């Protein structure tokens, strides 16, 4: 992947993937909308590294903030999660 697709302040929706292998996309944020807080640089996709794929894809990684009430129905705090770009889509798109 090339240049980062999202910038801080952009609302994103996480994927609904449920792979049979390792993923760094926590179940509690799948299909949820959050806001990009920061770009953390580019890093190898851990899903591919865990499967020992040679030369895993390198992607931008973002810190994304979710309101606790959007994840669990209550709470006034927020939760931040570092997520790879392939887990994300603009919040206006349908979940995949």
From TrEMBL:
Keywords: Lyase. Residues 3-89 form the Nitrile hydratase beta subunit domain. Pfam families: NHase_beta_C (PF02211). GO terms for molecular function: nitrile hydratase activity. Its EC number is 4.2.1.84. It is an enzyme of class 4 (lyase). This is Nitrile hydratase. It comes from Halosaccharopolyspora lacisalsi.
């Amino acid at each position: 992947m090339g240049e980062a697709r999202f910038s801080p302040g952009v609302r994103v929706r996480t994927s609904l993937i449920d792979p049979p292998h390792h993923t760094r996309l926590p179940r509690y944020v799948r299909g949820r909308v959050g806001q990009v807080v920061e770009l953390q640089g580019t890093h190898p996709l851990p899903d591919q590294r865990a499967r020992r794929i040679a030369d895993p894809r390198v992607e931008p990684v973002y810190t994304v903030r979710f309101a606790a009430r959007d994840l669990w129905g209550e709470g006034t705090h927020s939760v931040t999660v570092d997520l790879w770009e392939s887990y994300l889509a603009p919040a206006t798109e349908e979940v995949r």
